[in-house]
Amino acid sequence: MMNQRAIVLLSGGLDSATVLYHAQAAGDECYALSFDYQQRHRRELHSAQAIAHSAAVHGHEIIPLDLGRWGGSALTQRDLDLPRQRHPAAMTQGIPITYVPARNTIFLSLALAWAEVLGAKRVYLGANALDYSGYPDCREDYLLAMQQVYTLGTKRGREGQPIELAAPLLHLHKGEIIQLGQELGVPWELTWSCYQGEEMACGMCDSCILRREGFRQAGIEDPLPYAGT
Predict the structure, then answer these.
(1) Helical H runs in the chain?
(2) Neighbouring residues of 143: CB distance < 8 A, sequence distance ≥ 6
(3) Which of 34, 43, 96, 105 is 20 to 30 A removed from 62 (C-alpha atoms)?
């Protein structure tokens, strides 16, 4: 396989970790991109660093952004309560308070800029069918529109060499993602999903519930400890 450079958006969660290992298995020369956007905690950034090191990526950038300046999300505004103990089916009803306004548009724009400078062939992100939780910027129509931006808004695209926006997990459920990651050798113990960011995962926020259900569906033990268990 011919190595081609790729940018992988790496949050520190199991989805983005699986995408990174998938891209490497496909033969891409991967550069990881994470964001310190003044989210509720830094725990996931520590995981992103550990995963990038474990995967021996060719470069890892952590970009500071202050999305907490305006708030508007329970992930950036600490006086908003996180949803807890919701059934997965309820998570797809409406857009939840954990949606961060325009987050993926901002992240993908910065990834596009780095990809064009780096000469990367594609940008990967871990959007998927189950874990989008109603987020508008994790859906297929949004990603198709962003691909148009990638093509029309860059020198590379206008010259007939557009940068590809790749979301290989888009149509997979969480259990299928975990099965794929298991086959690829993803170090699950380094990943972090909990919105709370305490010493142990809470087990009750939307992200923890989806993660635990995914491991149950895959028939694989989650190596992370959870509070109260």
Answers:
(1) 14-25, 43-55, 103-118, 140-152, 155-158, 174-184, 206-218
(2) 127, 165, 167, 170
(3) 96
Please state, in angstroms and rounded to a whole number, the distance separating the CA atoms of residues 220 and 131.
18
Return the closest-CA partner of residue 112 out of 70, 42, 69, 63: 63
pLDDT tens digits in sequence order for the chain, 229 residues long: 456 999 999 999 999 999 999 999 999 999 999 999 999 888 999 999 999 999 999 999 999 999 999 999 999 998 998 888 787 666 667 788 889 999 999 999 999 999 999 999 999 999 986 655 678 899 999 999 999 999 999 999 999 999 999 999 999 999 999 999 999 999 999 999 999 888 899 999 999 999 999 999 999 999 999 997 6
In b/e form, how buried is each residue of 75-105, taking b as 16+ CB within 10 angstroms? bbbeeeebbeebeeeebeeeebebbbeebbe
State how far the Cα of 116 lies from the Cα of 25, in Å rounded to an integer. Answer: 22
129: which 2 tokens?
Answer: 């069918």
